[in-house]
């Protein structure tokens, strides 16, 4: 029996065909959907961040990772427009600000990093806040300012070095020093047959004169003493118990002296003019012009005492300042012994030190230290003229050459010779004088500077009545140097100095 075939009860369902209008509606997104706007914002901001990072990679910007290089790049940079994606995105996507900020911040940092790398080559690993960025800009600005300030100061320094503007004016000029040839040819005469006359190791003889066979001398220890031929020292005047500059301002510092009729006339650098009677060692004050501060040397003629004031601005302990400024405030005074009056007869002298009455007793010979010259003053007419200029050194004392009955002995603490190693450099470069004046107070004295740019040199010259150098006596080794006076007595030439004991040498015939 044939089994009946069982028919399947499942029915195959055919797909439902959709209408074109429904299909188009499903493919078109809803533009007002907030989620769609957020997604679009993220995609767009990510793309711009990717683009900025790609530009950085292509330019191979390698920022430094050390805050020490804040001032490393001071070069000028071109203006860079800050394309802040944060601001542009706010305008385009006003409805999605909060969602946009998180993604746009990455873009902002990337663009700012690129711009900052062009301004200053600095990248801070941890701190990238506004303070660090402001510090970078400040460093670039400061470096720019310092560069131009340095150039201005350099130009100002060169100007001062060559002309001394605003510092010191070169009020004096000197001729080129004469060469040590002919009568100035170096020799060793000062070292021949020398002998020490005064051997006190605590002081040196500065100025001296004779009373019979006894030498009357002013010492660097601020004393006036009598030095008999037997060698016994007798103190005539000792105003200072302490050898300090402050004490000297109070008690004085005797320098130039002359002996006439058993009276010693002394000029004190601080106190002025006074006298000592050798009969009883009595001291008597004579004169001190108030307008001067540094009295130096004197000469006696008739009933007049002529004495010099080196400067009206500085005391003796600051004389270096007067010389460095090349200040011509020196004066010449005359004191009438009978009438006891003081008269100023010359002014505007350039550091006058030594003074002597001429051989014919009609003129005064004045040593102007700063000008390296001797000036002749006519006592009767009051006129002055240059006696000899461009001396081989800066003159200190002037004394008659008695053995020759003509001419004068002149000593030089500092010598001049061709070349740069002498004090003439201070005349050409006022800025160096200004600097040395400051150093004289704190670091180095004028004597130490002279030993630096030059060397100690002993020199004494004889000058004729016509103003010519006749003979010269040298010590190139500097053993006998910084001479303060040369004077004759009994056919011997006695030398005083600022740096060593008193010596005596025979006078050449």
| DSSP summary: helix tally | 10
What is the molecular shape?
A: elongated
Rg value? 46 Å
- How is the biggest beta sheet arranged? 4 strands, antiparallel
Cα separation of the termini = 183 Å
- Share in β-strands: 25-35%
Number of strands: 26
The strand line-up of the biggest sheet is 1-26-25-24
Question: What structural class results from the helix and strand content?
Answer: alpha+beta
User: Can you tell me the residue ranges where pLDDT is under 50 for at least 5 consecutive residues?
Assistant: 1-18, 60-109, 111-127, 164-170
- In round numbers, the mean pLDDT is 75
Task: Give helix % range.
Answer: 25-40%
Task: Describe what you observe in this structure.
- With 509 residues, this protein is α+β, with helices and mostly antiparallel strands.
- α3 (85-92) packs antiparallel against α4 and α7 packs antiparallel against α9.
- It contains ten helices and 26 strands.
- Helices cover 27% and strands 28% of the residues.
- A four-stranded antiparallel beta sheet has the order 1-26-25-24, with no helix packed on it. A four-stranded antiparallel beta sheet has the order 2-3-4-5, with no helix packed on it. A four-stranded antiparallel beta sheet has the order 6-7-8-9, with no helix packed on it.
List keywords for this structure.
509 residues; alpha+beta; 4-stranded antiparallel beta sheet
């Amino acid at each position: 029996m044939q089994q009946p075939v069982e028919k399947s009860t499942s029915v195959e369902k055919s797909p439902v065909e959709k209408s074109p209008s429904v299909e188009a509606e499903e493919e078109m997104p809803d533009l007002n959907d907030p989620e769609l706007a957020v997604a679009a914002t993220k995609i767009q901001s990510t793309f711009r961040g990717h683009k900025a990072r790609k530009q950085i990679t292509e330019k191979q910007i390698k920022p430094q990772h050390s805050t020490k290089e804040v001032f490393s790049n001071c070069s000028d940079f071109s203006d860079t427009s800050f394309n802040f994606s944060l601001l542009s995105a706010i305008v385009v996507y006003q409805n999605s600000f909060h969602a946009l900020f998180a993604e746009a911040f990455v873009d902002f940092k990337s663009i700012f990093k690129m711009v900052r790398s062009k301004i200053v080559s600095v990248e801070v690993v941890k701190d990238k806040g506004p303070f660090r960025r402001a510090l970078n800009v400040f460093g670039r600005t400061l470096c720019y300012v310092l560069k131009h300030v340095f150039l201005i100061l350099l130009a100002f320094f060169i100007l001062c070095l060559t002309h001394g503007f605003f510092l010191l004016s070169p009020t004096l000029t000197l001729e080129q020093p004469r060469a040590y040839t002919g009568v100035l040819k170096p020799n060793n005469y000062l070292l021949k047959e020398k002998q020490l006359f005064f051997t006190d190791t605590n002081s040196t003889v500065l100025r001296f004169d004779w009373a019979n066979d006894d030498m009357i001398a002013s010492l660097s220890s601020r004393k006036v003493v009598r030095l008999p031929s037997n060698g016994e020292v007798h103190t005539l005047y000792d105003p200072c118990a302490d050898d300090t500059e402050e004490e000297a301002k109070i008690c004085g510092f005797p320098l130039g002296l002359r002996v006439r009729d058993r009276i010693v006339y002394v000029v004190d650098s601080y106190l002025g003019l006074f006298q000592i009677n050798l009969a009883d060692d009595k001291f008597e004050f004579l004169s001190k012009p108030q307008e001067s501060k540094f009295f130096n040397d004197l000469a006696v003629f008739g009933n007049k005492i002529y004495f010099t004031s080196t400067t009206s601005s500085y005391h003796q302990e600051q004389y270096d300042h007067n010389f460095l400024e090349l200040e011509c405030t020196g004066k010449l005074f005359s004191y009438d012994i009978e009438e006891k009056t003081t008269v100023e007869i010359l002014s505007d002298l350039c550091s006058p030190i030594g003074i002597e009455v001429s051989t014919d007793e009609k003129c005064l010979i004045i040593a102007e230290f700063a000008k390296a010259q001797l000036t002749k003053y006519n006592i009767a007419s009051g006129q002055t003229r240059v006696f000899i200029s461009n001396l081989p050194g800066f003159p200190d004392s002037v004394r008659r050459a008695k053995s020759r009955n003509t001419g004068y002995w002149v000593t030089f603490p500092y010598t001049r010779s061709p070349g740069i190693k002498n004090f003439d450099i201070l005349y050409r470069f006022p800025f160096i004088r200004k600097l040395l004046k400051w150093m004289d107070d704190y670091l180095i004295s004028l004597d130490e500077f002279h030993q630096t740019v030059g060397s100690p040199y002993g020199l004494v010259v004889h000058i004729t009545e016509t103003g010519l150098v006749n003979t010269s006596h040298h010590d190139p080794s500097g053993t006998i140097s910084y001479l303060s006076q040369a004077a004759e007595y009994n056919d011997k030439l006695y030398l005083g100095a600022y740096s060593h004991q008193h010596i005596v040498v025979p006078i050449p015939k």
